[in-house]
Amino acid sequence: MPNKILTYLLCLLLAAACREPSSVEQFIAAPGPYEFQVEMRDTTVLYDFSFYTRLDGYPSELQEAQELPLRITWISPSGKTYTENVYMPLTGRSSLFSRQVLQPYRANVQPVQPGLWTLMVTVPYSDGREILRGLGLTVSQHYK
Q1: Which CATH number fits domain 21-143: 2.60.120, 3.40.50, 2.40.30, 3.30.450?
Q2: Which pLDDT belongs to residue 80?
Q3: E strand or H helix at 119
Q4: Over the stretch 6-32, which tens digit does the pLDDT of each residue have?
Q5: First CA to last CA distance, the chain
Q6: For residue 129, what are the β-bridge partners?
């Protein structure tokens, strides 16, 4: 009897270990454009998206970099495109020659179509573009 219980508990632990992580990150080095593959196969899940980056430069350059314009295009699994322009605030934890930035982009997104989406991000010319080290995307998922 104790062996059956132990075997059952071991099977439960193994099944729990095989779960998909609740968040994933991707980072693409500068200069871009930045193309992220986003798996949204479960339409019952809500997705949160955040961008992150690091700025490296002289203190005067870091001080001037207040926001970064982003042109964002979503491409659905069927090929439809959705485009928007947003401004990412460049606030974050700083040292003398560097700043780490993490900014929410969208929260509680429920895909209209399940599957693999493409998120294309381009950075038009801006003062912060030269000190940008790349762009990262964090995708978290949760239930309502």
Answers
A1: 2.60.120
A2: 96
A3: strand 115-122
A4: 666 565 555 555 555 667 999 999 988
A5: 40
A6: none
Where does residue 55 rank: exposed (0-12), middle (13-18), buried (19+ CB within 10 A)?
buried
Strand partners, 48: 140
Strand-pair category, 34-40 with 115-122: antiparallel
- pTM, entire model: 0.81
CA–CA distances in Å: residue 143 to residues 7, 17, 43, 46, 76: 31, 19, 10, 6, 21
Residue 62: CB atoms within 10 A of its CB come to: 20
Local structure of residue 12 (DSSP, 8 states): H
Token couple for 108: 């509680």
Q: Where are the domains of the chain?
A: 21-143
**Alpha carbon distance 117, 77 (integer Å):** 5
